[in-house]
TrEMBL record:
Family of this protein: Belongs to the YciI family.
Domain of life: Bacteria
YCII-related domain sequence ranges: 1-114
Protein name per its UniProtKB record: YciI family protein
Length: 120
């Protein structure tokens, strides 16, 4: 089953770029990437650019509207993701617990919908 691991954090709470703590955090991400590759579960994953680069789109009254920035105002922002393919939620949670952001943010695990029952 495929799961998204969504990584949320408050940018002010994560280690500052150029510090030893930042290097250690990034080392944790690199090690997690290599472990998931070696385990054969990693399908995709990447960090996202900052919320200042975001554009939100919605349709209201038949008119498409675009807005700069994320739609929801929150301290924690979606900063990246992993797409993994594992047997069950417990296994997905084990990988999510290895994401360095669990120390200062929130890591959400969510199964993907499968609209093609032939793939089961």
């Amino acid at each position: 089953m495929q799961y998204m691991i969504l990584i949320y954090s408050d940018p002010t709470s994560e280690p500052a770029y150029g510090t030893k703590e930042f290097d250690a955090m990034m080392g944790g991400y690199f090690m997690l990437n290599e472990r998931m590759k070696a385990d054969g579960v990693l399908k995709a994953g990447e960090a996202l650019q900052g919320i200042e680069t975001a554009t939100s789109v919605r349709q209201r009254g038949g008119k498409v509207e675009t807005m700069d920035g994320p739609f929801a105002e929150t301290k924690e922002h979606l900063g990246g993701y992993y797409l993994i393919d594992v047997p069950d939620l417990d296994t997905a949670l084990k990988y999510a617990a290895l994401v360095p952001a669990v120390a200062y943010g929130t890591v959400e695990v969510r199964p993907l919908m499968n609209y093609n029952p032939m793939d089961n």
